[in-house]
Specification:
Elements lengths: L9 E3 L9 E7 L2 E6 L3 E6 L6 E2 L5
Antiparallel strand pairs: 1-2, 1-5, 2-3, 3-4
């Protein structure tokens, strides 16, 4: 899960769509730090949540 997630890409949290689009800041193991436009910086457990990658729309 989340194998394609790397720093710099844009993602959406599938259960928190109101957070808006987020940019991945770091990924260490399964811990992913994302800065979301409407929610700020969040730490995501990649074992439990599969982030959706935003396709080149930004």
């Amino acid at each position: 899960m989340n194998e394609l997630i790397i720093p710099g890409i844009y993602v959406i949290h599938p259960k928190e769509k109101d957070w808006g689009i987020g940019q991945v800041q770091s990924k260490i193991g399964n811990i992913i730090t994302v800065n979301f436009e409407n929610a700020g910086k969040k730490t995501i457990n990649g074992k439990e949540i599969k982030l959706n990658i935003v396709k080149n729309e930004i």
